[in-house]
Design goal:
Low-confidence stretches: none
CATH superfamily of the largest domain: LarA, N-terminal domain
CATH topology of the largest domain: Rossmann fold
Shape: globular
Strand content: 15-25%
Helix content: 25-40%
Number of strands: 20
Number of domains: 2
Largest sheet: 6 strands, parallel
Radius of gyration: 22 Å
Distance between the termini: 30 Å
Number of helices: 16
Length: 434
C-alpha cells in the first residue's frame, strides 16, 4: 500500500506515492496570523528588549533611515510587514524621501526592477528609494575594520537609523537565518565573506544546522552586525504557504534568539534510526531555482543518512547552476570533489566566490559518495548535470515522472528498505533520537 506525500518543488509542489510505512520527517503545521496588519503593528509596539519603534524614532529623530530586506532568493513576506513599518515611520516624522530600502544581495546577482516590485510591491517602489547592495562596487562600500578586513554597504552604515528585516529558518552553516545575517553576509563584500564562509570556518563541526553555540559562522556574522549597529530588528517565522506565522522584533540578539528557539520547536522532526532511502527537495520557489541553493536541502538531510543511504533530491533549478563563478568552479572540478577539498584546504589558498557551497555539498559526498547522491531536475541540461558531483536521474518524462520511477525502481530492488521523505526540505530540522 502507498500514500501520497506532497513535497516542495518549484511554485506548485510535487505529489509522490511512497510506501505507507514511509517516515515523513516534518515539523508542526504552523498557522499564519489571522490579521497580519494588526499583528505587525502590535509587535512594533511591543518589541523584545527595546522601546517601541515609534519611541525609538521620536527619541533619536533620525534624518535618514535604512531598511535592509532579503533578495529574491528568500521567501520573505516583505509586502505583509513593510507598509506597517512605513506607517510608523511616517507617523513619527520620517518622510518617504528620508527612507532607503536596501536589498541585501550579499554575493548574489543584482535584482531587476520587476523583482523589486515582487519584493516590496509597486506602491512602495514608487514611493521609496529601493536599491541593491553592490558588493563589487568599492564606491558603495565603507570599511569598518582593517583586521580582519570588513566592509559594508555605505548607505546602510551611514544611515542615522538602521532596521534589519528577514525571516528565521534553520540554516546549514549559521545555525539559523535571520538576525545578524541581514547585515553579514547580506550587506558585506567578498573580502568579509572570505572570513565568514572560509574553509576553516565551515570545516568546524559547530557550523551546522540549528546550532548557535560555538558556531564560528554565527560569531563572525554577529560581530560584524554589532560593529555596524542595528537599531531595530524585524524578523518573522513563516508558514508553509509563505505567510507570517510569528513575529520577533526589537533587539538584534534577544529577538533573534527567541525566534530561533521557536523555529527549533516548530520545525524539528525526530527519528530513531537512519534510512536506506531519503527523499528531499530544494525548498521550492524561490529557493530551488538554482543548484547552488539546492545544496541546502542535501545538507539538511545529513542526520538521517548513513554511508549506505541513497539520497534523492528533487529541485527545479529553473535558473540552472548559480552564479558564473560557482558554475565555473563546479564544471572545472568535474566531480572531483576530493581534489577540490585538498585545494581549498591548503594554508595559502584564497577563498573563492561561492566555493563554500561546494564545500558543504562535500559533507554529503564524504558520507555517501556521488553514486548515492541523486538529483532530479528539469532546469539544468542533462549533459551538464553529469559534472556536478551528483548522479543525475535521467530518462523520459518530466521531473515528477522520473522521481516516481526512481522510487518505484529502488523499492522493487529493495522491498524492505527503510524510507523517509522530507516534504519541506531545507526548512526542516532533523534530530536523531539518542
Amino acid at each position: 500500500m502507498n500514500k501520497a506525500v506532497k513535497i516542495l518543488f518549484d511554485k506548485s509542489g510535487m505529489v509522490l506515492n511512497v510506501p505507507v510505512n514511509t517516515t515523513v520527517l516534518e515539523g508542526q503545521i504552523v498557522k499564519p496570523c489571522a490579521d497580519v496588519e494588526t499583528s505587525v503593528l502590535a509587535a512594533l509596539d511591543n518589541p523584545i528588549g527595546t522601546a517601541p519603534l515609534a519611541q525609538l524614532i521620536m527619541d533619536k529623530k533620525p534624518q535618514t533611515v535604512a531598511i535592509t530586506i532579503s533578495d529574491i532568493t528568500r521567501p520573505v513576506p516583505n509586502r505583509q510587514f513593510l507598509p506597517a513599518i512605513m506607517q510608523v515611520l511616517n507617523q513619527n516624522g520620517i518622510a518617504d524621501s528620508q527612507i532607503v530600502i536596501i536589498v541585501g544581495t550579499g554575493m548574489h546577482r543584482a535584482s531587476t526592477r520587476q523583482e523589486h516590485e515582487i519584493l516590496v510591491g509597486t506602491d512602495i517602489v514608487n514611493r521609496i528609494e529601493v536599491i541593491d547592495h553592490q558588493a563589487d562596487n568599492a564606491k558603495t562600500m565603507l570599511k569598518i575594520s582593517k583586521t580582519p578586513p570588513v566592509s559594508v554597504c555605505k548607505r546602510f552604515a551611514e544611515a542615522d537609523f538602521r532596521i534589519v528585516t528577514g525571516f528565521i529558518e534553520a540554516h546549514f552553516m549559521a545555525g539559523f537565518s535571520g538576525g545578524r545575517k541581514g547585515v553579514c553576509p547580506a550587506l558585506v563584500d567578498l573580502e568579509t565573506i572570505q572570513d565568514f564562509h572560509g574553509y576553516h570556518t565551515l570545516a568546524n563541526p559547530y557550523a551546522s544546522t540549528g546550532n548557535l553555540t560555538n558556531n564560528p559562522c554565527h560569531k563572525i556574522s554577529l560581530k560584524v552586525a554589532k560593529k555596524v549597529g542595528v537599531d531595530f530588528l524585524f524578523n518573522v517565522i513563516i508558514s508553509r504557504d509563505k505567510q507570517i506565522a510569528s513575529i520577533y522584533c526589537g533587539n538584534l540578539e534577544l529577538a533573534h534568539r527567541k525566534g530561533c528557539r521557536q523555529v527549533k520547536e516548530w520545525m524539528t522532526a525526530s527519528f530513531d534510526h537512519q534510512f536506506d532511502l531519503v527523499i528531499t527537495n530544494g525548498g521550492g520557489y524561490p529557493l530551488d531555482y538554482t543548484f547552488y541553493q539546492t545544496v541546502k536541502g542535501m545538507c539538511t538531510a545529513l542526520p538521517a543518512l548513513s554511508e549506505h543511504t541513497t539520497l534523492l533530491v528533487v529541485s527545479s533549478c529553473h535558473d540552472q547552476i548559480g552564479s558564473e563563478a560557482y558554475t565555473e568552479l563546479m564544471l572545472r572540478y568535474d566531480n572531483d570533489w576530493e581534489k577540490f577539498l585538498l585545494d581549498i584546504g591548503r594554508g595559502d589558498a584564497e577563498t573563492k566566490l561561492d566555493q563554500w557551497q561546494y564545500q558543504m555539498q562535500a559533507k554529503v559526498l564524504d558520507l555517501i559518495g556521488k553514486d548515492k547522491l541523486c538529483l532530479v531536475t528539469d532546469g539544468i541540461p542533462q549533459d551538464i548535470q553529469k559534472h556536478l558531483s551528483v548522479t543525475p536521474v535521467l530518462g523520459t518524462g518530466d521531473a515528477q515522472v522520473r522521481t516516481q520511477r526512481f522510487i518505484d525502481e529502488y523499492l522493487s530492488v529493495h522491498p524492505c528498505a527503510r524510507v523517509a521523505i522530507i516534504p519541506d526540505g531545507p526548512y526542516t530540522m532533523l534530530k536523531a533520537a539518542r
